[in-house]
Amino acid sequence: MDAVAKKYRYITKECLFCNSTNEADHPIVYQKNFRDEDLDAGVFSARRTADHFHYDMVRCSKTGLLFSRHILDDEALNELYKGSVVTFGEQTEFIKRDYWRPIADKVGGWQRKRALDIGCSNGFFMEVLKDNGYEEVHGVEPGTEPKAIARADIRDNIYTGFYGPGLYPENHFDLITCFQTLDHLSDPLGMLRNMLYNTKPGGHVYMIMHNTNALQAKIFGERSPIIDVEHIYLFNKENLSELCRKAGFKVTSVFDVKNGYPMSYWVRMSPLPMKKMWVGTLKVLGMYEKMLDINAGNMGIILEKV
Ligand SMILES: [Zn+2]
């Protein structure tokens, strides 16, 4: 049976700082490498092994912002994300530890009444927050499958859909977290402004995302897993801070995030050639399941609403 060829509508994205796509200041860095029929919800699922599809990507010569110039319209993106599935699996416990570490010694001085995790997946970080003293923990997640497998005491506080205006009251949360999500959005500034609205004065926002200035991104270039159809705007520490200030936040700190996984995970996720050879060698050396903490090219940022 012939598959019906999918036709998507595309929209043009502007630089978040120049508000244009002026080609002289935003030259193309990587050329689009897929056709519409290559896309399905699997391509839009967290942590699946890289497919390496990406749109035309351009870089702002003033700010270094790396972004997709023509992207699928919201309707198509929403459909693809709704069908996305949880693929964290065995890695969840490691991710919980890695994401908690940067705020572990700070939350003692913070109010811990209400928290929100945007793009919460199966609620793994909601669990961490609840287990560390937050009284009321909410989550937002577009995919329907993650909620079904969320921990029982968390599940009812997960809203299935997209985060946006009207969902939560003004000055409501002591902490809003958002991991590996900002670079998937077609309007990150709008999202940040809405986060500011929902945060209590004196409250915090804590986000983690890829860093385009990380060593891996520079070494692997187009083969880096961050050059991906899921990513619309990609940041570095400077332009991310600038965008957060533009939204009205005070930037408290920006830092590298270390990830600790077994060696087997790093080998699977890496764009290294000859993976089988690496796996064999590491197994022989008895190092395949050894834990390894490395800077995988993620950065974190902590913001305050003053
Ligand atoms: Zn620009």
Annotation keywords:
alpha/beta; binds zinc ion; Rossmann fold; seven-stranded mixed β-sheet; 306 residues; four-stranded antiparallel β-sheet
Average the pLDDT over all residues and give the rounded result.
89
The low-pLDDT segments are: none
How many DSSP E strands?
13
Rg calculated over all Cα atoms: 19 Å
Strand content: 25-35%
- Share of residues in helices: 25-40%
Count of DSSP helices? 10
Q: How many distinct domains?
A: 2
CATH superfamily of the largest domain, called what? Vaccinia Virus protein VP39
Instruction: For the record, give the distance between the C-alpha atoms at the N and C termini, rounded to a whole number.
Output: 60 Å
- Secondary-structure class: alpha/beta
Largest sheet report: 7 strands, mixed
Which molecules are bound besides the chains? zinc ion
CATH topology of the largest domain: Rossmann fold
CATH domain class name of the largest domain: Alpha Beta
Pfam families: Methyltransf_23 (PF13489)
Protein name: Class I SAM-dependent methyltransferase
